[in-house]
Amino acid sequence: MIVIMNKIFSYVLIFSFLLFSISLNAQTKKSVLTLCEKAVKEIEAQNYPKALTYLNKALSKDSSYPEIYIRMGDIYNFTLKSCDAAFCYNKAISLMKNPDPILYLYAADEELKCGSYQGAYNNYQSFISKSLNEELLKHARENLLKCSFAIQAIQNPVNLVPINMGDQINSLYDEYLATLTADEEEIIFTVKRPRDKNTICTFCATEEDFFYSKKDSSGNWNNRVSMGAPINSSYNEGAQTISPDGKYLFFTICNAESGYGSCDLYWSKRIGGRWSRPRNFGAPVNTVYWESQPSIAPDGKTIYFTSNRPGGFGETDIWKTEMIEEGVFTVPENLGSIINTPKADDAPFIHPDGSTLYFVSEGHPGMGGRDIFYAVQLADQSWGTPKNMGYPINTSADELNIFINAKGTIAYICSDKEGGIGGLDIYYFALDEHLRPTPVTFMKGQIRDSETGSPLEAEIEMVDLKDNKVITSTKSDPITGEFLACIKTGTNVLLNVSHPFYLFYSENFNIKKEATELEPILKNILLQKPTAGSTIQMKNVFFETNESTLKKESFVELDILADFLTKNKNLKVEIGGHTDNVGTEEFNLNLSLERAKSISNYLISKGIDPSRMISKGYGESKPVATNDTEEGRAANRRSEIKIIEN
């Protein structure tokens, strides 16, 4: 787009000056000719106010010269007054018997910028029917599609009632790029404030810093607070994302001494309420090119970002990398031509559902300029066709970014619309249902030692049992033991909590509620040390009804058990099977034993020594709940691992 538009602007100057001089040479009114020649010189010198003064005087003497309007259109074009430019070009066209086709393109481009889509559509069609310039024809056809889309979008608007977040968040300065934790208790955003004596950028009038706010006990936002050192510095910090669990902050610093060139990605970790010193992602993620706008997936390792590095499809592309261990990143992978276009694609936001990507693009059909789109990742990990979020979320102006809460019900954007507090403000609005991602709720709590009550830093994973895919990965805080983990609705999910010196803890979730019904799960988890008599309840081991055949969904947890036994080679365990009281006592006793043996055989297939395991069936003899309800019977149908020797 930039290259094409530069060529068009060059054509504006060359064509207009030639047209004007040829036409005016034939004019008899010397005073008008003199004024216009003076205007040309001022335009060449980029002294546009003075040029307009001459042109307005010429217009007062004779308003029938189309070339005067062309000159005025050029000035408004160069000074980004699109609606005024469009009016002048259209006026010139109306005064000419055979306008040069390029005038239709000038008028159409300016009308597109100011949202006059029907006029732009008509002028693009006129240009296409008259021009032979293939490069400009391609540009016109692309924008004709945008006009068609915009006209239809305006006729079918999405619901949008933006609410300003108020002066606890917004100020007279620009606020933008808001991100929230999954529990929506904390918001972090960028503020562009006036420079101060510590600002390193010599020629910058402003400096970007991070601010945050937390909700009070009534659910209202507290007054914003600067994040301060070590996150904020004398450089520009911006384009941040906070991980859904609130543990990691990923962001951009430009032209720092520790950087690789231009803008780089950095990360910081929160431990016990304090943020660590920012660390550069390093190679191969950061390069001499521009890397910015990170967004982390709920798996805790996949990070999407924007770069203009070589190997992409356009001016800027969306890429992804994985944090294979803390501070160690894989070679970035381009998201491909379904997402990226030959133009600018940036501002990625991956929703906590892990599969819905929101981003900004100039290349996909939209309202003109930069529009917000979303795409859903398919089962084979490819991306579906991006969809425009519609009007008035998107307009003829450039949209910056969007953030969607975990439930998928509320969106956050920034805007400089009238009625704001000042500059760009952060707004929120209820998201139309057809634009919503898969709802996500969260589990929040604390992990502690079962004997001492001491907080523990443990690994926490949510695994989709259908395809054995990690959908959430996090750690509890090493000082407080607190954690927050996302749970995607509509999936059969295994929760696994592990620590190298404790028995692992597992649980099963299958949440099918609508987003409006979702409630967070509050859970404090006690981990046991592997002493004789301690027990692991295998809540993600499933069998066919009335059979001992393991379902494939069981393999995820059994693999975790096999790994645990491999790492703890002196453990000897009993594998116990339990049933409800449906059926005869003899049948249940035999079924429970066969199920225990099935688990044992699976572990043997994974390399566990058979001498370390005893299989035992208890049938219905040791219920943990009533057998009078389905929920109670389900709890009684269980498999347990008991440590019998360490």
Which value, in Å, is the CA radius of gyration? 32 Å
CATH superfamily of the largest domain: TolB, C-terminal domain
**What is the total number of structural domains?**
4
Strand-residue proportion? 25-35%
Average of pLDDT: 90
Number of strands: 33
What structural class should be given to the helix and strand makeup?
alpha+beta
Largest sheet: 5 strands, antiparallel
Percent of residues in helices comes to 25-40%
- Topology-level CATH name of the largest domain: Neuraminidase
| Uncertain stretches of 5 or more adjacent residues | 1-28
| Alpha carbon gap, first and last residue | 68 Å
Describe this protein's structure.
By secondary structure, the chain is α+β, with helices and mostly antiparallel strands. The chain contains 11 helices and 33 strands. The strands form 8 sheets. Strands 6, 7, 8, 9 and 10 form a 5-stranded antiparallel sheet that branches. A hairpin with a 5-residue loop joins strand 20 and strand 21 (410-415). Helix 5 packs antiparallel against helix 6. The protein is elongated and about 115 Å long. The chain starts with a helix and ends with a strand. Residues 1-28 have low confidence and may be disordered.
